[in-house]
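Progress report, Aim 2. The chain analyzed during this reporting quarter is listed below.
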Amino acid sequence: MNQREFTAVYQKKGKWTIAWVEEVPGVNTQGRTQKEAKENLKEALQLILETNHALSSGRAAQTKREFLRIAAPM
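Predicted structure tokens for the chain:
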């Protein structure tokens, strides 16, 4: 399995830390600490990536995969 990097963003909101992944819409979570939010975020990202892969694999005859590289702000 390939290792990939994503950008995790953390923001303190009251007693909670909210977190999201910039590159993947819908991957967001929260935790009482940044450490808890990070672990929750890793799990959420893994589930989204596995689900998206499974959905596209089910359409194998109609599916084409290729790497897409763009310049993006940091």
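Strands lie at 8-13, 16-21, 28-31. Residues 14 and 41 are 19 Å apart (CA to CA). These observations will guide the mutagenesis work planned for the next reporting period.
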